[in-house]
Write a structure and sequence with these properties.
- The complex is a heterodimer of chains A (256) and B (123).
- Chain A contains 13 helices and 2 strands, in the order αααααααββαααααα.
- With 256 residues, chain A is mainly alpha-helical.
- In chain A, strands 1-2 form a two-stranded antiparallel sheet.
- In chain A, a hairpin with a 5-residue loop joins strand 1 and strand 2.
- With 123 residues, chain B is α+β, with helices and mostly antiparallel strands.
- Chain B is built from 3 helices and 5 strands.
- In chain B, a hairpin with a 3-residue loop joins strand 2 and strand 3.
- In chain B, helix 1 packs antiparallel against helix 2 and helix 2 runs antiparallel to helix 3.
- The chains are: A mainly alpha (256), B alpha+beta (123).
- Chains A and B meet through helix 6, helix 7 and helix 13 of A and helix 1, helix 2 and helix 3 of B.
């Protein structure tokens, strides 16, 4: 990066005014470059907080810069807030998302990953709003995408890989928790008694959460949406875990 | 009643295509997401008997029959001689299919392994 002049708050503000009112593409680019230079230090500072996670710092700075660019695009001068304050969550969000993306078991194009994340959200709130599972047409309309894209997004859910019980999952209030925290304890031993007796030993080898989902779906007859509500995870997460479990059980059966 | 047919190599890698066609047609029938997911599980469960975990030498013909609110999926395996294909459902498969499909069966018809499943839109 080139030598950076440190501008005062007012100077940053006037730079934004100039940027937002710029009409020519060249002028916009030039002003945006100056805004980026001005704040790259913030990006580097934030990126350093993530450097112990096995990713080169330079890559993290690049990722953070994407967040910075988004923040520059969206910054509203009407707000009585300094740009750096406004940009910080966007940059951190971009960095977190970068690590979350690493959770994909199969290399999935970013467009599809984002589609999946968007759909997960829409499925959740539409389900709440409608009080039933939404249709594809309803999902497509709510997410402003085509029905084909919805189907693609649902199918790609199967490639997503949460390997650890401690993997973060989004909660409805926008925070994160881990699956381990979500596992209920209510009468579990009692609950599983009836099906342990009737099932192949393979089932007993399953991780607790997979067993629980299997139990709720096929023994209790709860729908995927209902299970998602009960466990506080997304319906698409339930779908993926269920499919993965069934696949592993089929394979186990064949090896017999 | 309309019929849509596909033929895939008997490999698990192509089950995604069957799932996507199933989901696409269920979408036309205005199935809910839960029902679409169930349909995909059902077709996966049955098709897996034909593909096995490693794939088999042969093809699977899958016919989809749809009307206003109902879909029927029929599969028929066409395998090279000597391929052993199981045509009785395990107890566990039966339980899964009872939950996710209206009707489901696996049988040998004139020497050809076949499956059939149906599902209707819930009102």
């Amino acid at each position: 990066m080139s030598e950076r002049a440190t501008l005062s708050k007012d100077e940053v503000r006037s730079l934004f005014v100039a940027y937002q009112s710029a009409t020519s593409e060249g002028e916009k680019l030039e002003l945006r470059g100056r805004l980026v230079d001005q704040h790259i230090g913030l990006v580097e500072f934030l990126a350093r907080r993530f450097r112990n996670r096995g990713e080169p710092l330079e890559d993290l700075v690049q990722v953070g810069t994407i967040g910075l660019l988004k923040a520059i695009e969206r910054f509203d001068l009407e707000r009585e807030v300094e740009f750096s304050t406004y940009a910080t969550p966007t940059i951190v969000g971009e960095l977190k998302r970068h690590f979350r993306d690493k959770g994909w078991a199969v290399r999935v194009p970013r467009r599809l990953q984002e589609l999946h994340l968007e759909l997960t959200k829409v499925v959740g709130f539409l389900g709440q709003e409608l009080g039933r599972s939404p249709t594809v047409a309803e999902l497509a309309e709510a997410a402003s995408i085509s029905e084909e894209e919805v189907l693609e997004g649902l199918e790609i859910a199967q490639a997503y890989n949460f390997t650890s019980l401690d993997a973060p999952i989004d909660t409805s209030d926008g925070g994160t928790t881990s699956f381990a925290d979500q596992l209920g304890t209510e009468d579990e031993h009692l609950e599983y008694l009836e099906y342990r007796a009737s099932l192949a030993p393979e089932m007993a080898k399953l991780p607790e959460r997979e067993r629980r989902i299997l139990y709720l779906r096929f023994f209790k007859g709860m729908t995927q949406s209902e299970i998602a509500d009960k466990l506080g995870i997304s319906q698409m997460h339930v779908s993926r875990l269920l499919n993965r479990t069934l696949m592993s059980l089929r394979e186990a059966l064949e090896e017999e | 009643m309309e019929k849509i047919s596909i033929r895939i190599p008997a490999s698990p890698a192509y089950l995604q295509v069957v799932r996507l066609v199933s989901a696409g047609l269920a979408t036309r029938l205005k199935f809910t997401l839960d029902d679409i997911e169930d349909l995909k599980i059902a077709v996966d469960e049955l098709s897996a008997y034909f593909t096995g975990a490693q794939g088999r030498d042969g093809t699977i013909q899958v016919d989809f029959l749809i009307d206003d609110d109902h879909i029927e999926i029929r599969g028929a395996g066409n395998f090279a001689p000597g391929q052993k294909v199981r045509t009785d459902l395990t107890e566990f498969s039966q339980m899964i299919l009872d939950t996710v499909a209206d009707e489901a069966s696996l049988e040998q018809l004139d020497g050809t392994p076949t499956f059939r499943l149906t599902k209707s839109r819930k009102q």
